[in-house]
Every structure is written in structure tokens, then in C-alpha cells.
Request: fold
Amino acid sequence: DTEVTQTPKHLVMGMTNKKSLKCEQHMGHRAMYWYKQKAKKPPELMFVYSYEKLSINESVPSRFSPECPNSSLLNLHLHALQPEDSALYLCASSQARQGANEAFFGQGTRLTVV
Amino acid sequence: GQNIDQPTEMTATEGAIVQINCTYQTSGFNGLFWYQQHAGEAPTFLSYNVLDGLEEKGRFSSFLSRSKGYSYLLLKELQMKDSASYLCAVRGPRARDYKLSFGAGTTVTVRA
Reply:
């Protein structure tokens, strides 16, 4: 199983809503990531979790709140988002060690903030 | 920080060869990755280089020169399904940093 599963695939939310994005992998990977990708742009790193601990936060606004409840799950809690936060949100995972440990990406959640 | 440059677009004919160049300036280097991304889909891993030289994987090869901050992805025997965006990504500054910084991507269009 080399899949990273993200739900939902599409999400439309108002600026006052609270929603969560979910990501799941069963490859035994201990590093998990959230990326944001705008149209025709490359993915931009938001957060990295290593062994269920937050290791990198790329100065992401607090309206995005990550959570890693266990080694297979990664959530991104959303609150009071702005229309410019509309994007494709990609989850990825990799082995947490040196070497050719490529990141496997999920299909993404396409988020629209109205 | 990381500064990663690659051409915006390339067009080639089915069966031909295309070379996508990537140059980078980084505050630390621990590997270079190439990913393929079809429109509306997730990026998929193609290759990894951490030492200088050529890595070959079927129709795809990737080259790295660390002293020049340069890599290329070579796509041989192009097929229509190879039409996609190709992303160069650098990991750094530490090997355990897990931080991938992506270039803007090169859109390759394969014509019959």
C-alpha cells in the first residue's frame, strides 16, 4: 500500500466556518507534511511532523492548525479562513531517516473559501 | 533559503527526447528530487540524486552536479502520457529536515 488518502476531495467553506482536512497513510512513515498549492504554482510547505511532533512550521497563520493524533493520521483544522486561502492542500508522507526517502503525496483537497 | 529555477514550458514530439534543466542556490543541500504532476493530480516521485552523476530509471534519467548547483531530467521516447508538469525539488538544509522546496515546474507538452 503506497497510498496517502485525503478527505474530503473538495470543500467549500464560508469565512466563519470551522472545518478539518484529514490525511491517512499506512506505509509506516513517521514524517508527514502539509503543502499548499495555488493554480500553476509549485507546492509550498506549510508544516512537517516528525514522529508525531511538529518539527517545521513555515510561519503559517494561526487560522491553520495542524494535528497529528497518531503515526497514521494528520489533520489540518481550518478556522476563519480568507478567500485567498483557496487552494489545493496536499498531504505527503515519507520515512523519517536519511536517504532516498521520497515523499508520497495524496490527491489533495481542493478548498474554496467563499 | 532556496532559489530554484527551471524553464516554464517545453514542447516536444512523440518519440523524441526532452531535457529539463534545473538550477538551484541553497543554504544547504541534502538531495534533489524530480516529481511529475498531471493537471489536477498529486505529484508523483520520479527520481532522486544526492551524489554527482547520472541516475537512470527506464525512460527517465536524472543528472546532478553539486558544484554547479545544476540538475536535469531527461525524458526519452516521449509518449503522449508524459505531457505534465515536472517539478524539481531540493531537500535541505539538513538531511533530516524533510523540507522539500519546489521549483515553479516545467510544463511539457508532447505532440503527435
Summary: The CA atoms of residues 31 and 105 of chain A lie 12 Å apart.
